[in-house]
Design brief:
The structure holds three protein chains of three kinds.
Chain A lengths: L1 E7 L1 E2 L2 E2 L1 H15 L5 E9 L6 H6 L4 E6 L8 H15 L3 E5 L4 H12 L3 E5 L1 E4 L5 E7 L4 E6 L6 E5 L15 E4 L12 E8 L12 E5 L6 H14 L2 E4 L1 H5 L21 E5 L5 H4 L7 E5 L13 E3 L3 H11 L3
Parallel strand pairs in A: 1-4, 1-6, 4-5, 5-12, 6-11, 7-11, 14-15, 14-16, 16-17, 17-18
Antiparallel strand pairs in A: 2-3, 8-9, 9-10
Chain B lengths: L2 E6 L2 E3 L8 E2 L6 E2 L5 E3 L1 H17 L1 E8 L5 H10 L3 E5 L9 H14 L5 E5 L10 H9 L3 E12 L2 E8 L2 E8 L2 E5 L11 H7 L4 E4 L19 E6 L8 E2 L4 H14 L20
Parallel strand pairs in B: 1-6, 1-8, 6-7, 7-13, 8-12, 9-12
Antiparallel strand pairs in B: 2-5, 3-4, 9-10, 10-11
Chain C lengths: L7 H18 L3 H7 L6 H7 L18 H12 L3 H20 L2 H13 L4 E4 L15 E5 L2 E12 L5 E10 L5 E9 L5 E6 L10 E12 L3 E2 L5 H38 L1 E2 L2 E2 L4 H29 L5 H25 L11 H11 L6 H15 L3
Parallel strand pairs in C: 1-4
Antiparallel strand pairs in C: 2-3, 3-7, 4-5, 5-8, 6-7, 9-10
The chains are: A alpha/beta, B alpha/beta, C alpha+beta.
Chain lengths: ~325, ~280, ~375
């Protein structure tokens, strides 16, 4: 039987959306394999049992529930050996991780312990005619896509950023819950100690849930224009985003509103970009948007080739006109 | 408390040129012609972190890389920044390595140095950006390791207080030396190279080690030691229609709002004013 | 004749200064030019990088490198801001008499802070009565009760607000009745000594240029550099080899800026359905800009290399300065023409390149003076 596992990331009472996206993908991969398959989730933490229902609804047929108060805070020195032991016991064929702050560390750590391979931050994956997992992985800022396989070792591991895959629809379903015995586990005497997790409250609509996104590139030129993007976003019930130079200049609040290969991937219904040149590493973060409109004073800007519509115009004037028309 | 610090760096093609990277249609390989090679930018944050700790506690900073022979140029830069010595791991046998084999080779190189207190890596390289070598190197070395460190606080009794980025927040940690830290760009601002540094660098040693110098298992090196294998490469096709809107700023703004409406976005209205096609208000 | 190439260390230095210039100079250059603001806050930072004391020995806090390396620093910075370039090069200009002719005490007293960039240096020679007429200057210095007392006025002095100033003054007449000059070090704050009116220049903005007033300025006897009467030699050595080298390097930087901006624009600007880089007329312009840049570069580094090899290089620097300043004006105009309407928009640096190049011509000796020097040397050196 081929087992496809997903690492369920449940932090601070929130199940990361990437887990649901990966479960949906795991189901899809399973249908591409011959013979019996089983999609399972590995859930580690403390007081996490309530999320099993959601995991089942999105595709987990089995859930390895690893619960202990010692595991309340993520610690790779605790989590990785648990994963490794489980893998060695159950021998999954494929193991998927979200390329989150935790997953980006935990995946490769477990892979090193298991001496297997991880295809990092894939943008696509499928099963080939040899029943192998083929992952499409970007490099050079997204300019090049390469296929990565892990033909000889198991499990074939892969990490995927949130927002790359689409979350499916939940279905009423029961999963078999396997409680893993971690009574002997202790966080004492470890040379690595997690002290605390602090979350910052984000204002407004989260970027990955916004229906319409107004994005500013280096061309916006000042903090004032960022403010206008935020106003537009607010009135539409959407979100404001930016590219890295805008964060570096201090015009935007931080990396959490950054879109691109080193930032977030988004797929809103509509994306309107201002002063964005169209460098691949940003485009890769928004290429799956429904409607892409770009404004850049340079008619030769590369961004127009990847937009549905555009205007070679002064973004300041367009912004001002939009604000006037929407009574802002 | 003199510290032995190792910084791993990777020479990469300059990211400013990545939009020029393409695939040769004949050889099907990536063309990097004319793109200069630089030290992977975030690795410099690692060098800076090491130099700051050395300035505070004394000790030695060794820069290490697994790369082709011309990487001595980049190692010289690191020495000019202030590192004390450099080691280049270079051998055809190391070629074709994925992250597991690369981190194994780096670990063997580090083991050949006489112990260490801290190893710094950058979070990810600009070209491959797998972001995995840091964690896997920590595993091969058998030391506690953290990835995505953006804050390094006091070092007391051989314990470091460190913060890593988390979704919408951060985690705080205590990690005992020896350890490995994968650092991000937010950690510090790497110093510029000074003329004095360039002069001092002339007397600093660069040592090259090949397969024969390392106590390594052959089947763990290079292509043989890489569980992941590369398949086809291609450039993604992101092209769209690119319809150009023309007219005055007002006309363009109207056209944008109309396109948003047809895409299914709710256009906000205010009070008794409503926007109709063509931009006239009633 | 050996093939001309920079050493590995010189290439690394260029890379280092370029990174600094791209990060700290390029983003603000237009603003400094518009506001005529001299970024003195960068001097201590450049000091730490070894730029301010690039050719001073390590024992005085310098980097212990030479004039080729100094030219590299000035070229890289001037590519983005010729205004900062001339402020820096003048700082070096003032340091060089102390370094080349000063006593051990003078070097130990002044050089460390000048190398660190915590103090600014300047050289004041030109007067309202004439700059080209160097020997005809009127500022006087009289030895009275173990102190030198100076009176006079200098004008067109860059870094006229400097902390450490090297001044030339008339200390007597020789047996033929010609002025005998001497060089002195005067510190800012000395009573009677101060910066006068600041000039509003049309180019090289971002550097401070203006008058220096000397009214009964009393300085210790040991503040004289070298011997009495050595002022002409000291002043001319500084201007001839350090000042002209600096101006050449500034204009090589501007020339490179012209090449880069012209190429960028020609590749991006599309008219008649293709980038203008495909048009022959544009290609001719680019070829000319490039050729002049390469020629100026060769002349500058050849002269600097000669100086570092301790060979006399005064005529070589005159040739380099004359050529590179005039070429920078020509190349800036060509680049402006190539850019059409965009060339006169201040968002693009080309207008500033042209103004900075024009202002470079009368700095460190006008083109007419350079031609006299070159002719004088040619007429004797090429005698059949």
């Amino acid at each position: 039987m081929k087992k496809i596992w997903v690492f369920a990331e449940y932090v601070n009472c929130t199940l990361d959306r990437v887990t649901l996206e990966l479960l949906t993908k795991a189901k899809e991969l399973a249908s591409g394999l011959k013979g019996e398959t089983e999609v399972a989730a590995v859930l580690i933490g403390s007081r996490i049992g309530s999320t099993c229902k959601t995991l089942a609804e999105y595709g987990a047929e089995k859930i390895y529930l690893v619960e202990s108060d010692e595991l309340s805070l993520y610690n790779p020195m605790l989590y990785a050996p648990i994963i490794t032991e489980l893998v060695q016991k159950e021998d999954p064929d494929i193991f998927l991780f979200g390329a989150t702050a935790i997953g980006s560390e935990l995946g490769p750590t477990a892979a090193a312990q298991l001496k297997t391979g991880v295809a990092a931050h894939c943008v696509d994956m499928h099963i080939d005619e040899n029943e192998h997992l083929v992952a499409a992985v970007p490099s050079f800022g997204g300019k090049i896509l390469g296929e990565i396989l892990c033909p000889d070792t198991r499990p074939q591991m892969a990490s995927v950023k949130p927002g790359i895959f689409v979350q499916g629809e939940p279905e009423e379903r029961e999963a078999q819950i396997i409680k893993v015995d971690v009574s002997a586990i202790t966080a004492d005497n470890l040379p690595l100690k997690a002290i605390s997790l602090e979350k910052k409250e984000t204002e407004g609509v989260p970027l990955d849930k916004a229906e319409v996104v107004f994005c500013g590139g280096y061309g916006i030129g000042c903090k004032e224009n960022w403010g206008k993007l935020e106003k537009l976003a607010a009135i539409f019930g959407g979100a404001a985003a930016c590219t890295r130079p805008v964060v570096d200049e201090g015009w935007a609040p931080g990396e959490h509103v950054m879109v691109g290969t080193s930032g977030k991937s988004i797929r809103p219904k509509a994306y309107v970009g201002f002063g964005i040149s169209g460098a691949t590493h940003h485009i890769c973060g928004m290429k799956d948007s429904g409607l892409i409109i770009s404004i850049n004073k340079d008619e030769k800007a590369a961004v127009f080739e990847v937009s549905d519509a555009g205007a070679a115009a002064d973004l300041n004037r367009i912004l001002d006109q939009l604000m006037i028309k929407l009574d802002l | 408390m003199a510290l032995k610090i190792v910084v791993c760096i990777k020479p990469v093609p300059d990211p400013d040129y990545y939009d020029k990277v393409s695939i040769d249609p004949v050889t099907k390989r990536i063309t990097r012609e004319g793109i200069p090679t630089i030290i992977n930018p975030v690795d410099k944050n690692g060098i800076e972190a090491a130099l700051k700790l050395k300035a505070q506690y004394g000790g030695k900073v060794t820069v290490l890389t697994m790369a082709p022979p011309n990487a001595t140029e980049n190692l010289k830069e690191a020495l000019a920044m202030g590192a004390d010595e450099a080691v280049l791991l270079s051998d055809r046998a190391f070629g074709g390595a994925d992250t597991l084999a690369t981190s194994y080779t780096l670990a063997k190189g580090i083991e050949k140095l006489e112990g260490f207190d801290i190893v710094f890596c950058g979070t990810e390289s600009a070209d491959g950006a797998t972001a995995q070598v840091s964690s896997q190197l920590g595993e091969w070395l058998g030391v506690p390791h953290l990835w995505n460190v953006f804050s390094l606080e006091n070092l007391e009794e051989r314990t470091l207080r460190v913060r890593t980025k988390a979704e919408n927040g951060f985690m705080e940690w205590e990690v005992k030396l020896p350890c490995l830290l994968g650092v991000s760009r937010e950690l510090n601002k790497p110093r510029f190279i000074s003329a004095m540094g360039i002069i001092k660098a002339k007397n600093k040693p660069i040592t090259t080690w090949g397969k024969a110098d390392l106590d390594a298992e052959e089947e763990r090196l290079g292509l043989a030691g890489s569980p992941t294998k590369a398949g086809a490469i291609f450039t993604p096709d992101l092209k769209r229609k690119g319809e150009m809107l023309t007219g005055s700023a007002e006309e363009i703004a109207d056209a944008i709002i109309e396109k948003l409406r047809t895409a299914g976005v709710n256009i906000p209205t205010k009070g008794d004013a409503c926007i109709i096609e063509g931009g006239a208000r009633q | 004749m050996q093939f001309f190439e920079f050493t590995e260390d010189q290439e690394l230095l260029r890379k280092a200064v370029r990174e600094f210039a791209e990060a700290e100079v390029a983003p603000k250059a237009a603003e400094w030019d518009e506001n005529d603001y001299c970024p003195m806050e960068l001097f201590p930072i450049m000091g730490e990088l070894g730029i301010n004391g690039i050719f001073a020995p390590e024992e005085y806090g310098g980097a212990g490198m030479g004039h080729v390396e100094r030219a590299i620093c000035i070229e890289e910075i001037s590519r983005y801001s010729a205004g900062l370039g001339i402020a820096l090069m003048t700082h070096h200009l003032g340091m060089s008499p102390i370094l080349d002719f000063g006593t051990e005490e003078q070097k130990k007293k002044y050089l460390p802070e000048l190398c660190a960039g915590t103090k600014l240096c300047g050289l004041a020679v030109t007067e309202p009565g004439g700059g080209s007429d160097f020997a005809g200057q009127k500022t006087t210095a009289e030895l009275v009760d173990g102190q030198w007392v100076l009176n006079g006025r200098k004008c067109f002095i860059t870094n006229h607000h400097a902390d450490v100033n090297v001044i030339t003054a008339v200390t007597g007449q020789d047996e033929k009745g010609r002025n005998q000059l001497s060089a002195f070090i005067i510190e800012k704050g000395t009573p009677g000594f101060g910066a006068g009116r600041k000039e509003h220049k049309m180019g090289l903005r971002g550097s401070v240029t203006g008058d220096v007033i000397l009214n009964e300025v009393k300085i210790p006897q040991e503040n004289i550099i070298g011997n009495v009467g050595a002022g002409a030699k000291i002043g001319m050595a500084a201007i001839g080899e350090v000042g002209r080298a600096g101006m050449s390097a500034i204009c090589v930087g501007i020339l490179r800026g012209c090449v880069e901006e012209a190429v960028k624009f020609a590749n991006e600007r599309v008219v008649y359905g293709k980038p203008i880089a495909k048009l022959q007329a544009i290609q001719f312009e680019i070829a000319n800009i490039r050729t002049e840049y390469e020629a100026a570069k060769m002349l500058l580094y050849y002269a600097a290399g000669k100086k570092d090899a301790k060979l006399p290089a005064t005529p070589d620097f005159a040739i380099a300065k004359y050529y590179s300043t005039e070429a920078a004006v020509r190349a800036s105009k060509r680049t402006m023409d190539l850019m059409g309407g965009y060339g006169v928009i201040n968002e693009y640096p080309v207008g500033r390149f042209l103004r900075d190049a024009l202002a470079s011509i009368p700095s460190g000796g006008t083109s007419h003076i350079q031609q006299l020097i070159i002719a004088g040397n040619t007429l004797s050196a090429f005698k059949a």
